[in-house]
Amino acid sequence: MKIPFLDIKSQYLSIKNEIDVAISRVFQSGQFVGGEEVKIFENNFAAYHGMKHCISTGNGTDSLFAILKMLGVGPGDEVITPAWSWISTSETISLTGAKPVFADVDPEAFTLSISDVERKISSKTKAIMTVHLYGQSCDMGALQALCVKKKIILLEDCAQAHGAKQNDQFVGTFGLASSFSFYPTKNMGAYGDAGCILTNNDELALKLRRFVNHGGLNKDEHLMEGINSRMDALQAAILQTKLKHLDNWNEKRVIIANQYKEKLGGMKFIKLPTTNSGNRHVFHLFVIRSKRRDDLKSFLESKGVATMIHYPCALPFEHAYSGFDYSEKDFPVAAQLQGEVLSLPCYPEMTEETVAYISDSIAEFEKH
What we know:
- By secondary structure, the chain is an alpha/beta fold.
- The chain has two domains: 230 residues, Type I PLP-dependent aspartate aminotransferase-like (Major domain) (Aspartate Aminotransferase, domain 2); 121 residues, Aspartate Aminotransferase, domain 1, CATH 3.90.1150.
- The chain has 13 helices and twelve strands.
- The strands form three sheets. It has a seven-stranded mixed beta sheet with strand order 1-9-8-5-4-2-3, with helices on both faces. The chain has a three-stranded antiparallel beta sheet with strand order 7-6-10, with no helix packed on it. Strands 11-12 form a two-stranded antiparallel sheet.
């Protein structure tokens, strides 16, 4: 049996007619950058979240960078972000000239440790960029209270958490602004790169629209220096089609995650992911922990099961940040996760039989 880590082709085939119609519509229009398709997607994605503004971009990394730049983050500033995440959040902070300050994460939820965040706040802290990792919301109530108390800007990276909620409120709606990535592997992925920003702040939204379009809203208008980061119409049409299916796909991910938990619950050598009270976890990734991680990964590969490691190296220990001279003692949880996390296949098109095969294979490994 061969089980891929993700099956984007099967998802396409499940909505092939809708996608093909959307793509054909764009080709017939002859408008491939911006235009009506992008406006429709922006309006509907904002409405889905109950937000005023959605600013589309070329990718999620550009979204993060644009937010920071338009908030005036720069040299002399510090922005706190998780030690356990993908590099987009920290690298965009550095690219503004500011300093990324890493905070450790909660060992159960993998999201920011609020207590460590509080320890890392200094007079230079301008913002906190939290990440809703693997599909689960960070503790936004505590973060909001902390940011209000310390007069710090709260920003959200929602690249892995499309449709996730905390206490019935969507992630991406708690902070001043939030970033989404639509990389093809996401819960709602494009067929190429794409991203967007959500905000309720009118002034910030206008600045962002200008910045990602060479500094102006219209052709040959350059009110500032900006970047070229625009969503193309094809991706907008595809994402608009997929938005109609997002809730259903997320529910299927939850079902698959629960099947895993039921079948793997009694195994002592692995630790299953948890869902914090009040959260709607959308399981972009189903991440287990095991001190026998590498051997388990190899065994599953021998059984035809593809797995991945998210992530093999915590951000503070990446070569890009070697100049900070961090040690594992500085981030004990993130340091431990490096050698233990393993992502199992988890996508809407999986069958219960597939989950059972993977679970049975893990049980077989346990007996070795």
